[in-house]
TrEMBL record:
<keyword id="KW-0256">Endoplasmic reticulum</keyword>
<dbReference type="InterPro" id="IPR004277">
    <property type="entry name" value="PSS"/>
</dbReference>
<comment type="function">
    <text>Catalyzes a base-exchange reaction in which the polar head group of phosphatidylethanolamine (PE) is replaced by L-serine.</text>
</comment>
<keyword id="KW-0444">Lipid biosynthesis</keyword>
<dbReference type="GO" id="GO:0106245">
    <property type="term" value="F:L-serine-phosphatidylethanolamine phosphatidyltransferase activity"/>
</dbReference>
<feature type="transmembrane region" description="Helical">
    <location>
        <begin position="97"/>
        <end position="120"/>
    </location>
</feature>
<comment type="pathway">
    <text>Lipid metabolism.</text>
</comment>
<comment type="pathway">
    <text>Phospholipid metabolism; phosphatidylserine biosynthesis.</text>
</comment>
<keyword id="KW-0808">Transferase</keyword>
<keyword id="KW-1208">Phospholipid metabolism</keyword>
<feature type="transmembrane region" description="Helical">
    <location>
        <begin position="165"/>
        <end position="183"/>
    </location>
</feature>
<keyword id="KW-0472">Membrane</keyword>
<keyword id="KW-1133">Transmembrane helix</keyword>
<dbReference type="GO" id="GO:0005789">
    <property type="term" value="C:endoplasmic reticulum membrane"/>
</dbReference>
<protein>
    <recommendedName>
        <fullName>Phosphatidylserine synthase</fullName>
        <ecNumber>2.7.8.29</ecNumber>
    </recommendedName>
</protein>
<keyword id="KW-0443">Lipid metabolism</keyword>
<keyword id="KW-0594">Phospholipid biosynthesis</keyword>
Length: 234
């Protein structure tokens, strides 16, 4: 939901570059953010809940006595082998917070690339390349996200996975393509009120990070020390 709302703000911010970002307010917030993205998030969560509770039986196909059972087993081949759940937990540590901010920025770049390529390279929306690119990022990005969580959650994992590096290289390459083929569009002057909004967002993120991971913990440390000193005095 954060990336959904954030991308709508990006569309407002880049209307001066990409004409198809100029939409009605209800298209931004009701159709896109609430119905499409919000509905997709809800259905995705329900799908995850089903897959988490679903029993997985991986008997060999020829040990199943009925034809129907064999057919179910064939279709089950395309479902997950097991289900491993991850939690974002963005404020668990400074490392995790910065990593998730970086992931969010890359998600924004992937979304922006969808519209930038259509505009800069004159690719019509129904073209198979648009859908193929989104499908690729859906499948490869899922593996990359799995590797990222493994790096964040598993202390024994000291490096990013190969898929994460591949996806990172692809996104950077896409950004370079946009810069190469339409530098004039990318460098159009940003309206002052847009600069002001993003400056406030950046300052708020920095101040919140300092408060959450330094100042707040310093206050809690002081409170614990006061309690310990009080107990020793008694």
């Amino acid at each position: 939901m954060v990336t959904s709302i954030g991308f709508e703000i990006l569309e407002y911010s880049l209307e001066h570059q990409l004409p198809n970002f100029s939409e009605c307010w209800w298209d931004h917030w009701i159709l896109d953010a609430l119905i499409c993205n919000g509905g997709g998030i809800y259905l995705g969560m329900k799908t995850c809940e089903y897959l988490k509770m679903k029993p997985y039986n991986w008997r060999g196909m020829w040990t199943i006595p009925t034809v129907r059972g064999k057919m179910v087993r064939v279709f089950g081949q395309f479902t997950p082998h097991d289900w491993l759940e991850f939690d974002w937990r963005p404020t668990a540590s400074l490392k995790r917070w910065l990593a998730l901010l970086l992931i969010t920025c890359f998600l924004f770049l992937v979304e922006l690339g969808t519209f930038s390529f259509k505009f800069i390279l004159w690719i019509p929306p129904p073209h198979f390349l648009c859908l193929s690119r989104l499908l690729f990022f859906l499948l490869a990005g899922g593996v990359s996200m799995r590797e990222m969580f493994e790096y964040l959650d598993n202390r024994a994992c000291k490096r990013f996975g190969r898929q994460s590096w591949v996806i990172t290289a692809i996104i950077i390459t896409e950004v370079l393509i946009v810069l190469k083929f339409d530098w004039q569009t990318v460098t159009k002057p940003i309206p002052f009120h847009i600069v002001l909004v993003w400056t406030k967002i950046a300052i708020a993120l920095v101040l919140w990070t300092i408060y959450q991971f330094w100042f707040k913990r310093f206050i809690l440390w002081g409170q614990r020390k006061t309690i310990q000193d009080t107990k020793k005095h008694k």
